Amino acid sequence: MTDQAETSRKRRPDERPAEILTAALDLFTERGFSATRLEDVAQRAGLSKAAIYLYFKDKTSLLTALVESVAAPNVALAADLIRNHQGPVAPLVGQIMILLAGRLTATRMPDLVKLIISESRAYPELGRFYLDNVIGRALPLFRDLLERGIANGEFRAIDTDLAVKCMVGPMLLGAIWKSVFEPIGAAPIDIAALARLDADLMLRGLKP
After folding, report:
1. What is the rounded distance in angstroms from the CA atom of residue 17 to the CA atom of residue 61?
2. What is the largest CA-CA distance in the chain?
């Protein structure tokens, strides 16, 4: 056995959760959450039906793990940017929106958003988990950022709860467009360009 093969063999147990999550998101996207069995995920990931239970107890735990691995890091990145930022707030608003656009382009975030939207009525606990752990953490971060801008005179007084939804709304559209409409032939949206335009419109509208 080569050193590379030996290394691969040794690393595989640590890699299995990520491989399972990739297989799960593929199948959830292709078939839907309800139609996908846990054994289907195991087969796609190259595991036995019994082996998958060493990592995930059921499909719900798979989907919550997907939220934590795909979506939660986006909130953490935004939080770090905000926490470490000094000086005027306005440039950071654009940076945050470009960050979100980049994550939509570089990760499976659009597929996850589509999955949460499509399954939350049938499985409200999944939608609630996403609401609490992604939306519920991100929107207050952005609201506090806008309130800092209002406090230091950069922005006019506005309803910040509504304004943050204006910030993320175009990114939600970009995710839905990429995961739902592009696969059936719609012209692609340049999500980065959309984010830049939205930031420009937001900042112009926020001026005192």
Report:
1. 12
2. 68
CA atoms within 13 A of residue 97's CA, in its CB half-sphere? 30
Q: How far is CA 39 from each of CA 25, 43, 107, rounded to the nearest angstrom? A: 14, 6, 25
CA distances from 37 to 50, 112, 191 (A): 13, 18, 33
Q: Find the CATH number of the domain harbouring 139.
A: 1.10.357.10
Locate 139 and state its tokens: 């929107």
| Statement: the pTM of the whole predicted model exceeds 0.90 | no
Query: Rounded to whole angstroms, how far apart are CA atoms 30 and 45?
Result: 15
CA-wise closest residue to 68 among 30, 102, 20, 21: 21
CATH number of the domain within which 20 lies: 1.10.10.60
Answer for the pair 99, 77: CB distance below 8 angstroms, yes or no.
yes
SS3 content of the chain, % helix, strand, coil (to 5): 80, 0, 20
**104 and 83, same domain (yes or no):** yes
pLDDT band at 13 (very low <50, low <70, confident <90, very high): low
Q: How many CB atoms lie within 10 A of CB 42?
A: 21
Question: What per-residue confidence (pLDDT) applies to 177?
Answer: 96
Are 183 and 84 in the same domain?
yes
Stretch among 12-21, 66-75, 116-125, 187-196 having the lowest mean pLDDT: 12-21
Number of domains in the chain: 2
